[in-house]
Structure formats: C-alpha cells, structure tokens
Amino acid sequence: MMRDVFGGGEQAGDPFYLKLIDKLAPLYRKIGVDYPQMRTILEMKLTMDSRKEAVIQGMNTSKKQDEEKNQFFSSLWVYAIISVFLLFLFVYDNWVFQYTTYFSYIFIMLFSTMLANFSNILLDTKDAELIGTKPVSQKTIGAAKATHIGIYLVSFTFAAGLAVMLATFYFNGILAGLLIIFLSFLSALWALGLTIILYATVLKHFDGEKLKNIIAYSQIGVSVFMVAGYYLMGQIFEVIDPETFLVEMNLSLGHALLFPMWFVAPFGLLQEGFQTVYLVYTVFLIVGTIAIGILYNLNSDKIDSNLQKMNKAKAKPSSRSLLEKGTAKLLSFSSLEKAYYHFTWQLTKNEREFKTRLYPSIASAMIFPLFMFFSSLRGDQPITSQNTLTFLYLPYFTMLAIPMIAVATQFSVNYKGRWLFELSPKHAKGPFLRAVTKVMLVKILLPMYGLISLLILILTGFTYSVQLLNGFLLMSDILYFEMKRTGQQLPFSRKYAASEANQGCMASLIFFVPVFVISLGMILLQTFVPYAEWGVLVGLLALNGWWMKKGFDK
Amino acid sequence: MEPIVELVDVTKQFDGTPVLKGVTFSVMPGEIIGYIGPNGAGKSTTVKIILGMLKKDSGTIRLFDQLLDPNDVTYKSRIGYVPENAELYETLTAKEYLLFVGELYGMKEQDIIQKSVQMMDALGIRDAFHGRLSSFSKGMRQKVLIISSLIHDPDILFWDEPLSGLDANSVQIIKELLAKLKQDGKTIFYSSHVMDTVEKLSDRILILHDGHVVADGPFSELKKEAAGTLEQLFNTLTGFDQHEALAEQFLQGMKGEFTHDA
C-alpha cells in the first residue's frame, strides 16, 4: 500500500539523499530558501516520480499501479557497466590523459542528459500555478527544482563514473580517489548550474514565440559546443608510442576555454608536481565554481518568475506545408493513416516539450559526421577510393537519433488527449504508428541524412548514389523496427516524468550493437561484392514497402 | 473601512498585444465580487497578477492595505485560489496533495489531516481520501481544489469557475458555504461564465471587457443601465447582439451549407 511520504520532516524511512540534503539546510537558508517548504516540494516531486501514470484505463491493469519504484535509479546500473569500458584508461600512466578522457565523457553525458531529459522539469509551468500561488518564494521553487534535478544528475554521475572512481583508488591512491569523487560531484553541479543560468538568461531577455525557438536553439548550440569541445580535447593528446602507451600533451592557449580540462589540472598537480599551466587551470576551476555559484544565486528565481511568458505566445495561423501535403499523399495508404500523418506532423511542430527532448540528440547525431566531413576536407588529400568509402558511410551516423525519436514520440504534454484515439471508430493503432514513423522519417531523418548525403554527392559525384539511397532505406527500416520494439502504447499518450529520463540512453544502448553489425554487414557487402548494391536496393525497397503498408498491424 | 484589494490603472501586454489596458477597481472586506467577462478579456491575467504569477507592466496594486511587493510572498498565505483549469498533481493521492498544500502554508500535519477529512466528509468524498487524483472525476477534483483553497483559512478567495463539474447537491453546499464565508468576513472573488449564479451570489459585479472594467456595481444598480438579466446586461456591455444569427451560421456550417461571407 501507499507509503505515507509526507511524514512531517525527518524520518527513518527517508532515502539517504534526502537525509544528505537535510545536512545542507543551513546552506539553503543562507541563500534565502525556506528549507521546510523546499523539502516538502522535493519530497512531493520524488513521490510523483516513483509513480507511473496509469496509462489508458483498462489497458494496463492495476498490476503496476501501486508499485512504487523510481525507474531512474533502477536504470543506473547500465551506466555503471558502461563505465567499465573506461578502465582501458589505466593502461596509460598519464593521469592528465586519463582524467581528460574521463571528464570529457562525464560532461558529454551530463549535458546531453540534462538538456534532453531535465529541461522540461526546469521549464515546467505547472508549478507556478500550483506552488507559486502559495506563500512560497520563487527562490524556494527554483531551489526545489534544482535540487530535484541535482539528485538525479549527481547519482547519474556517480553511476557513469563508478568504475573509474574505484579504479582510481586502486591505481592512483586514496588522495586521487577522493579528488575524483569530489570533482565528479562538482561537475554534476556545473552542468546543472550552467544550464539553469542559460535558461534563466534566455527567459529573462526573450518573450513569446521567439522564446520557444531560442530555447531550442540554445539547446542545439550547447550540443554543438559539446561535440566540438570533445573533438578539440582529443587533439590535445598525441600517442607517441603505441607500444609503451606514451602520450604527449600539447596544450595551447585556446585550450584554456575547454573547461573540462580545468577539472583535470588538480590531478596534474598531484602526479607531476607544480606546473604553471596546472596551477592556472586549477585557479580557473575555483574561480569558475565561485562564478557559477554567484550567477546561480542571482538567477535562481528568474526561471520561474519568467516562465509564464512561455504560455502566452500569440497563435500563428498554421497551415499544412507543401512537403507535409505531398508526403502525406505519397506515403499514406488510407484516409485514417493520412489523418494521423497530419496530426503527428502538426503536433511535433507545435509541442515545445517534444522539441526540447529531441533536438539535442539530433544536433549531436548531426555534428559528428559534419565534423568528420569538414576535417577530412581540410586535409587536402585527393579523393581516393579509400576515403570515399569513409565519406559514403558518414550519413549512417544520423541513425544515432533513431532511439531518441522512438522514445520522444511516446510522450506528450497533452497526453490526456489520448481519449480521442480511443474514441476513433476503427482500430487505429497500426495506422497511427505507421503515420508517426513516416512523419519522423520524412520530417527528421530525411533532412538530416539528406544534408550530409548532399555534401557527399557534391564531393564524389553520382557514382555512389545507389549506396547513399540504400543507406537511407536501411535507416527507414531500422526506424521501423526500433519504433516497433519500443512502442507498446499509443504514441503521444504518456506523461513525462523525471524518472523516465534514462529511457533515451537505455534505448540507444540496446539499439547500438545490432544496428552497427547490420550496417557494417551492408557496407562490406556493397564494397566487396560487385553489383551487390542493386540487390540490397531491391531487398530494402521490398522491406520498406512492407512496413509502410502493413507494419504495426498485429 | 479601507479596501482589501485595490487596483489602479493596471496594464499588461503579452508579446506586444495589450491584454489589460488600465484596470481599476477596489474591493471591500466581506464582499462577494462577481468577476466576469468574455473569454480573453483578461480575467485570469488580473488574478494571476494579484497572485504574483505575472508581473504587471504599470499601475499600482494594494492588498491588505499594502503595496504589492513581488519579493515578499507572505501575503499569499492569506489568499485561497481555485485555478480555472483544475490543474492538480495527479499522481498524488488526495491526502498527499492536501498535505502538500497545507505544509506549504506551514501548517501541522495533524491539523491538515483533521481539517481535510472533515471537509471531504462534508462534500461526500471522504472515502476517496487515499485515492489517486488521477482516478477522480472532474467534480471530485474540483472539491479537492476547493478544500485546498480553504485549508489555511484565508481572508481572500479567488475562485475561478468553482462550481464547474459539481453535481447539483454539491453546488447547493458550495453556494451556502459562500454565504457563510461572507458572514465570516471573507472577501470572495468569484469568476464564472454562468450568469444567473453570478447574479444571485454576488454583492457586486465587475465586468471586464477588452482590457477595461466596463461595469462595476451591485446588480440592482447595473440594471438601471440596461434592463433585464445579467446575461442581457453582459451582452449589451460587451457589444454582443448576434447570438441568433451566429447560431444559425453554426448550424449551417455543421450541415455543410456555406454562407458566402463565412
């Protein structure tokens, strides 16, 4: 049965993180937060996260109703397992190299989780109405939101870095171990603080419809910087001798901006002793932390006080674009499906929450092939058959957006509108899922794949257009299977809760290996068997034709 | 006696579109104000500004004889609010939700539970105390919202369509309750589109139209300006006289007979 979660303050049954936060109460009070109120809000939020919204009456029977389990925490073990792969770092005897790789990884993971999964909690407008009308200050609401996300981000960081942390104690000593625990914790706070400051600034300065777009752009911007930064970090090191695992570091002035390096500097001081560059970076770290603290304190109440702006945008007349109409005609084989096609198209066009969830992963899936493309160009190498091959398969990387698409289409802020689907006269699940899949294919994957393919066509000519086409057809099939695998319910009919945050990453992991194997198989086949591309084309076309007509029918 | 709520020339615009173009009114303690106006006239915006959810662009607001200070939220503990769209945290149970709201007001757990149980009992939903709000009917949710707006014994109530979804018996209880709250000295801001209820319940009526207050006074006085019911008065003041023609147009639209100017 239901636990009584609001049991008047500190109880034996409180999760340990709440007890930990209780210890920080004086700190909260110092920045002007009403601690008991904040704790009440936090407890309520965590209770809600541990409960699953009962999906459509009758579909999911009461079996799961009373089960209270926070999905987020129970999915963290996956990250702990992945972190084992990072242990390869310890074959290098260079701490700076080890922790540069570690912190780049941690920051990428942190920012992508933060942007895609927790933005909607920060930007939730419901709290303003339900909590803001009570005598609760914006600062307290802001602190509750930040702490709510903070709990998830910190536990996420410790899961993602678990193996490295343990190994650090073993290989590099207790001092380094304590340092990495502290700095990992700090990096989670950095990611949280920077995101809050970013959103608060955007919300303060923009208004209305513009605001929604700018939030999406700023998310994409951060994703781009992230991947670009990761790429630059990779340039700092050069493996001199692969046999002895000797690496050399070439730090230049420009690298001072890569803040994950600041987290590494203390390890440099610890292993190699005093060096000016490490000292400077460590000072940067300290100054940066203080600056984030101050900026957070100045901005923490700005998000909620400006959030109402989001709901007040003027309605723009929306019409069906030529692309929407044309593809609907071309790809939908029944009127019901066509209706769902237009519905999905418009819904994904208008729903901010959908965009905030999906755009960061689109940006990161795009940026890698683009980087590869332009950095290969810069090399001034003639186009040989060897590097044509690399170019040809660059667009495949856009497939990395597929798992997130499959997850994002399950949720909607207006999930309650699902009664409409249940009311529709015909059995509609098959056509609906087909329509959603097709819209995602045309609206999201086609432009991504198309852009990169176009660049490659310009570079290599039309010789390989069949291979490029095959890549897209393969992607379309993979999208179908991924949607099929994940979509047990009607699309856009689930409520998004913070505890679902790991879904995208989980799905990506399950997705990655089989897709990699299949893609590689197809690439090898097309490269080494003459005329295989035509056979592949026929096969893929047939498969596509099948799912577009009959897919999702049970 | 000093007014308990006073607005002078309050303006607000969204995205360049003015919503409030200078709203001025004052309310005395113990009054029931019927706050009405067509959709989009700015009713909710006014209430949200008073509650500090939105910032006004210009004008002055006085509450409890003090200038509204956006940095001081303590005044909100004297306000009870029923929002228009019946938003709740649905994954919570009624008990948890009421405890949550009560604790935000700084109340003791024991008090909250005792009060909630008694109030829920009176409204006939005591059995649902431990049920999840997501399984509640619209009327039951409305009752929970009404209880949560009164649990801390506030001085001013902002009720937006408080009767929506309630069955006839519950409506009777709430109407009676309103009268008793008034006797108790509470000030009630009552917003609704159901004109005869507003007409009967309110001491004074405020009609908001196009960002201005176009009528302010007891119904008996307003009647002098335009004869008939409040509904007719409302229609006159908001310049609306084509209901019949529009209904006809609607019906034709449904049947697929299109008028050329439609």
Helix and strand topology:
The complex is a heterodimer of chains A (554) and B (262).
Chain A: H1 16-23, H2 25-30, H3 35-49, H4 71-74, H5 77-83, H6 95-122, H7 126-130, H8 138-160, H9 162-172, H10 174-205, H11 208-236, E1 237-241, E2 246-249, H12 259-272, H13 276-299, H14 302-307, H15 322-331, H16 335-350, H17 352-378, H18 385-393, H19 402-408, H20 419-423, H21 429-460, H22 465-486, H23 503-528, H24 532-550
Antiparallel strand pairs in A: 1-2
Helix pairs in contact in A: 3-8, 5-8, 6-8, 6-10, 6-11, 6-12, 6-17, 8-10, 9-10, 10-11, 10-12, 10-13, 11-17, 12-13, 15-16, 16-21, 17-21, 19-22, 19-23, 21-22, 22-23, 22-24
Chain B: E1 5-14, E2 17-27, E3 32-36, H1 43-50, E4 58-63, E5 66-67, E6 79-82, H2 94-104, H3 109-122, H4 138-150, E7 156-160, H5 168-183, E8 187-191, H6 195-201, E9 204-209, E10 212-217, H7 219-225, H8 230-237, H9 243-255
Parallel strand pairs in B: 3-8, 3-9, 6-7, 7-8
Antiparallel strand pairs in B: 1-2, 1-4, 4-5, 9-10
Helix pairs in contact in B: 2-3
